[in-house]
Amino acid sequence: MATVSRAQVPAPAQEQSEARSRFGIPWRTIAIYVTLLIVCLIVLFPIYWMLTISFKTSRDIYRVPSLFPQAPTLINYETLLLKKNFLVNIRNSFIVASAATFVSVFISALASYSLVRLKYRFRGAIGKIILLAYLTPSSLLFIPLSVLVAQLNLGNSLHGLVIVYMTFATPFSTWLLMGYFKGIPPDLEEQAMVDGATRFGAMMRVLLPLSAPGLVAVGIFTFTGAWNELLLALIFITSEDKRTVPVGLQYLITGDVFLWGPIMAGAVFSALPVMILYFLAQRYMVQGLAAGSVKG
After folding, report:
1. Rounded Cα–Cα distance for residues 113 and 158 (Å)
2. Of 116, 141, 215, 254, which is least packed with CB atoms within 10 Å of its CB?
3. Is the pLDDT score of 255 beyond 90?
4. Same domain, 118 and 92
5. What sign results for the dihedral spanned by CA atoms 113, 117, 122, 124?
């Protein structure tokens, strides 16, 4: 019987070598890395351009655009911090965003637990109403909110702005936490209650520690939304010493005069806290997003 040589046996499809470039790298790998490089350039170039403009003088900004500052200077940062008191704006934004995040996440955790674990009439309708409250544009709410804030004598105050921010932060946090809580089996809380824990104690000792990544993710999303909010802060804050970061940047525009140097320097300052926050909590963000995708 004739023997068949190894060269005549066709290799399986999955073992066939991929088409490679002259350097021995598969074309598919090259295409993936080129695509990722293009995406990174699209995402990072605005940040780089913002940094570049912040170190340019006004004369260099309005010259022929260049990728590098011809004579780097810190005059824009000096103008922003010494003449415009931008650190006060950062302090105000930090106070308002932190307070709104803490209060809304606390209230949302209780509301989400009620909607997910407790059984009562109209529970589904209440969940849908919360979603509709979040989807309602802020531009439709500022008129009734203005009336309420005026009646409560909370106008032009940071704590009044915190209450206003809770109108969009609390529904958003509640809807997200509902997804996280549904992914945790209720048997764990029932076992804790069998051992003598109250329902509130089981929630605090079992549910909330297990959903910590989700709480961190929701807190970061809420903080970011409150930090970047402009419309409501522009309406309810009138004093210069109580302006938040977006309002402070808005007032750097006078008529049709754009102070691009200080504006970009302010954008750098306003972006740094959020970027640092996301960098430090990126592990919790990934875990929280993965947990929120599981529905029980």
Report:
1. 29
2. 254
3. no
4. yes
5. positive
